[in-house]
Amino acid sequence: MSSILQELSDTEVVETQSQTRNRGDYDPILAEFTASGSRGVRVPAEGALEGKKPGAIKSGLENAVKRLEKANEGSTAGIKVVLFKSGSGDNETLEIRLLNSAPADAA
């Protein structure tokens, strides 16, 4: 019996992932950041975020922050999601950064 299933290439998997909307992609990143105690981190477009545009990653992380605030009654008030731009023209790069502006003893 032959199968009708056709395996996707790695490129096709990444393309498909970049067009899907999954809440769960962002929650573990935010949880790791809040647990780390770090004041700021870069969020690379790797793993579950591979192929996603920086603006989509920013929106996903902002929504994860809102969900966490709601679940924890505002405990993420100091977390900011920033779309950081450097360079200009053809040399412009976009990077997602998470910042924790809460005092270290409150984090």
Number of helices: 3
Approximately how much helix is present in the residues?
Answer: 25-40%
Mean pLDDT: 83
How many extended strands?
A: 3
Residues in β-strands, percent: 15-25%
3D shape: flat
| Total count of domains | 1
| Poorly predicted runs of 5 or more residues | none
Evaluate the radius of gyration.
17 Å
> Order of strands in the sheet with the most strands?
1-3-2
Termini separation: 58 Å
Let me know the largest β-sheet. Answer: 3 strands, antiparallel
Structural class: alpha+beta
Order of helices and strands: HHEHEE
Short description:
The protein is of the alpha+beta class. Helices cover 35% and strands 19% of the residues.
Layout of secondary structure:
Elements (H helix, E strand, L loop, with lengths): L9 H9 L8 H10 L3 E4 L10 H18 L7 E8 L6 E8 L7
Question: Can you give keywords for this protein?
Answer:
107 residues; 3 helices; alpha+beta; three-stranded antiparallel beta sheet
